[in-house]
Amino acid sequence: MKNDPSTEISPWGAGAARHFADSPLGREVIALLREGSKSQRALSDFVLRNPVFVATHGIEDVSRAAAISASTISRYVRDLGIEGYPAFRAGVADTVAGLVAPVAKLETGLAQGAGMPAEASLGAAMTQVQALSDAATAEALREASAMLARARQVWIMGFGLSAHLAAILALGLQPYRDGIVNVVQFGGTEVAAGRLTSAGPGDVVVAISFPRYSSDVADLARGVRAMGATLIALTDSPAAPLAQACDHLLLAPAQHPILSSSCLPGLALIEALLSEFLLSDPAHVERASRLAAIMSAYLADGGDG
After folding, report:
1. pLDDT at 7
2. Residues 149 and 185 in one domain
């Protein structure tokens, strides 16, 4: 039976995943994810999601966590043109060296708090959000904000729990620019697909997908991209289905020590994107002031009423 990696692997790693995916070795792993055999795709997916784990564990540990035999891992490494697993592990470590130490510290803390699920969850959430405060994430958010500003229309979609994140992003953008469409409000996939038939060149589609992934959002995203729209993906890993089809990638970790996945890092990234967009243009601030004046009549004043 396959082990549950979430019990063994650090619950954050978007920064590490991004650094590794952008490296020469990471690009070779992505190539096997797209074009390799079934076992090569499975192992590539594991490595892309968990580069820190690979960088800090031996081949037997990776074999147990990924439920892939050590001999298959050895063949995989040779297929990459690398002499052996120790050299492969060192190559992965070179790309995430600056992130290994804090992740190892978090793993130790979670292990010590195994009997305290609330503390483990809060500790993981804090570390995940802190991991988003790197230069690469900030630059990715600035680029995404600029794309939203230039768009003819902005279409935002997510299914399942991601539908709530999509709604938060749509509601946050609507006061500051026209043409914001929350694709998945009602009616399910067929209605969403019908709505998206109006998307095309000049439009930006923001697709949000976290584990457990929805095949619907990936299929619709590929369809609107084929129609000429630009696709921004907000997901948890370079190995995620959306990451393979997007024009611009925003990564937020989603692993959780107890639950199937965490929404908090994705929400933090959405709030950061909204902040970046709001302050990117003085006109947005003016609209915020007008909105505040209008809403003031509807807000509680703390009196006896």
Report:
1. 35
2. yes
Whether pLDDT at 4 is above 50: no
- Domain of 166? 135-292
SS3 labels along the chain: CCCCHHHCCCCCCHHHHHHHHCCHHHHHHHHHHHHCCHHHHHHHHHHHHCHHHHHHCCHHHHHHHHCCCHHHHHHHHHHCCCCCHHHHHHHHHHHHHHHHHHHHHHHHHHHHCCCCHHHHHHHHHHHHHHHCCCHHHHHHHHHHHHHHHHCCCEEEEECCCHHHHHHHHHHHHCCCCCCEEECCCCCHHHHHHHHHCCCCCCCEEEEECCCCCCHHHHHHHHHHHHCCCEEEEEECCCCCHHHHCCCEEEECCCCCCCCCCCCHHHHHHHHHHHHHHHHCCHHHHHHHHHHHHHHHHHCCCCCCC
The answer to whether position 119 is within a domain reads: no
**CATH number reported for the structural domain that contains residue 72 in this entry:** 1.10.10.10
pTM: 0.69
Say if CB 3 and CB 64 are below 8 A apart: yes
* Confidence category of residue 109, pLDDT binned at 50, 70, 90: low
